[in-house]
Write a structure and sequence with these properties.
This protein has 226 residues and is mainly alpha-helical. 64% of the residues lie in helices and 4% in strands. It has a two-stranded antiparallel ribbon with strand order 1-2.
């Protein structure tokens, strides 16, 4: 064991995947943009292998789509996708909160309170990218309250889509502190072990966010970019 070399914490593929993923989530790679393996590899100064593997992972996450005989394109958000994602996250998060309240510990409440404070600070500093990460992390913390391994594994693939939606939603606000919204009252209801109130606040929050995002499209059923 002493002779083993230290393992790399991230592979090249993971680095490339994260680089492209962040560019899509943040909108630097716009919906409909074509991703060319050879060009990406040349721009990054690497072989095509890690790029090909990264694009495969991003396709699994729903961020890109491979159109046969045409190319690889960044997918669009659409009302139908947003409604599906938010209805599913609503079911998972309210289930998690209900289960989590039954086994709630003081340190759980402290973590949620600290998370809201960090969000408020990021908003005050006008750091929109950090706020997206903190907002997504807050909702992941709600999932973790349940201490339910299968639920956590089901939630993980949704986190990428959620971040993309949060980034789009945050741009709607005129002031970033509006993002804080009902997060403090949700934490307060959880701290009071008020399951009915907590799930109502959470459900209303998710529904409002869904409708705000869907209002970005004037016509229902906007198709994804090819």
């Amino acid at each position: 064991m002493e002779n083993w070399l230290p393992l790399e914490t991230r592979t090249l593929r993971e680095n490339v995947t994260e680089l492209i993923r962040e560019a899509i989530i943040e909108g630097r790679l716009e919906a409909g943009s074509e991703l060319n393996q050879a060009q990406l590899a040349e721009q990054l100064g690497i072989s095509r292998g890690p790029v090909r593997e990264a694009l495969g992972r991003l396709e699994e996450e729903g961020l890109i789509r491979n159109v046969p005989y045409k190319g690889v394109y960044v997918t669009s958000l659409s009302p139908s996708y947003v409604r599906e994602l938010f209805s599913l996250r609503g079911a998972l998060e309210t289930f998690a909160v209900g289960l989590g309240i039954e086994r709630l510990q003081p340190e759980d409440v402290s973590r949620l309170e600290d998370a809201v404070e960090e969000m408020a600070l990021a908003a005050k500093e006008d750091d929109s990218l950090k706020l997206v990460d903190l907002d997504a992390d807050f909702h992941t913390s709600l999932i973790e309250l349940a201490q339910h391994d299968l639920l956590r594994r089901v939630w993980m693939p949704l986190e990428i889509g959620l971040k993309r939606c949060l980034y789009a939603r945050h741009k709607i606000y005129t002031r970033l502190d509006e993002v804080i919204g009902t997060h403090p009252s949700l934490v307060a209801a959880i701290a009071d072990h008020d399951t009915d109130q907590a799930t109502k606040i959470l459900s209303d929050h998710i529904l409002e966010a869904c409708e705000q995002l869907c209002s970005l499209w004037p016509v229902e059923g906007t198709s994804e970019a090819n």
